[in-house]
Amino acid sequence: MPTDENQTELSPSDPHANDAAPYGGGDPYADYRAGDFPFTELVDLADRRLGAGVIAANDEFFAERENLLIREPAVFDPERFGHKGKIMDGWETRRRRGTDAEHPFPAPEDHDWAIVRLGTPGIIRGVVVDTAHFRGNYPQRVSVQATAVEGAPGPAELLADDVKWEELVPPTPVRGHAANGFEVTGGRRWTHLRICQHPDGGIARLRVHGEVVPDPAWLAALGTIDLISILNGGMYEDASDRFYSSPAQIILPGTSRKMDDGWENRRRRVRDTNDWVRFRLPAQGAVRAVEIDTAYLKGNAAGWAGLHGRDGDTGEWFEILPRTRLQPDTLHRFVLDTEAVVTHVRLDAYPDGGVARMRLHGSLTEAGAAELARRHQESGA
Ligand SMILES: NC(=O)NC(NC(N)=O)C(=O)[O-]
């Protein structure tokens, strides 16, 4: 059953118990049923910025599958119609039909599907199926399956009979115009996910939260890596402020392209305090060089930055970089005199202000590489 603390009980038997009311004018989100799911703290493995894509769907008559992974909330314009019908911001299939006049309804097993390549392989902890604006045309039930196929398989290879898909969410009723969250258990590492609508319908957005499980052989072959990159298994833990944009974006791949692509906090008015963000490395690593980028943060970049690290959950924090003046909209590079062996780092911004990206260049220690290899193997790779 969906996680639905904030929502009324879903009815498995009454097919209209989960309906949204028809759009009545005004703010289309006014009656949207949001959810509060603990796993949304974790990285979205289906983020386009990590390389995810919706690589195939059996039907996208009304609206294209690619919309599923758009970052922004789905938009609804009641006036917009196209050649095929209402323009919907999501993935929407046509209405399924039965076999003949005596059997106008689709068969119980009929469904539509879309296949998502995860941005990077990982353990899935929860899925959000957002049916925003799909009020009379959301699926009656959804299901989710996952598979692990290495390399770069295309749709035909993934649809072959010998590919085993494991059910993460069995066919389950969902609400229209709502965030439908599903917790996922099991610690397997997956590369692809299949989302099914039973029997048909529309879904606005799909989020697949979990933990990146990097390939130790790949990291070893590279030698020097960015030890904090999401793609290498770096994780955001906590921050002093998430007012404007997420501190987790500091460790995204690629450069920031606009102000809200990085971390921007609010103006700090309490003197003798500062903003900070804490990250965890995939395992113990030795950092040799640091990049701090304030790209697109011009009147609101951090004035100074400092970096501390610790080795282990209970290790003492020690200084990696002393408090250092930053320029707005600038990439700063620091070569460390001695390498810093850490599992966690804390970036301090003084007194407040944004940081777009941070990179920690170095290598996993022998113990770190062994730990990562063990986790990789345990997750079924
Ligand atoms: N008003 C609609 O959205 N109708 C249909 N969908 C689109 N996109 O036109 C349908 O049948 O679900």
Describe the structure.
The protein has 381 residues and is mostly beta strands. It is built from 3 helices and 19 strands. The strands form 4 sheets. Strands 1, 2, 6, 7, 8, 9, 10 and 12 form an 8-stranded antiparallel sheet that branches. Strands 13, 14, 15, 16, 17, 18 and 19 form a 7-stranded antiparallel sheet that branches. A two-stranded antiparallel ribbon has the order 3-4. A hairpin with a 7-residue loop joins strand 16 and strand 17 (318-325). The protein is globular and about 80 Å long. Allantoate ion is lined by residues 62, 85-86, 88, 92, 95, 137. This is Probable allantoicase. Residues 1-27 are annotated as: Disordered. It is an enzyme of class 3 (hydrolase). Residues 51-212, 233-363 form the Allantoicase domain. It comes from Streptomyces glycanivorans.
- Class from helix and strand fractions: mainly beta
**Mean pLDDT over all positions:** 95
Round the Cα radius of gyration to an integer and report it.
23 Å
Runs in which pLDDT lies below 50 for 5 or more consecutive residues are 1-6
* Beginning-to-end CA distance, first to last residue: 29 Å
DSSP summary: helix tally: 3
State the major sheet. Answer: 8 strands, antiparallel
**What's the β-strand tally?**
19
What series of H and E elements makes up the topology?
Answer: EEEEEEEHEEEEEHEEEEEEEH
Q: In percent, how helical is the residue content?
A: under 10%
- The coarse silhouette is globular
Bound molecules: allantoate ion
Beta-strand content: 35-45%
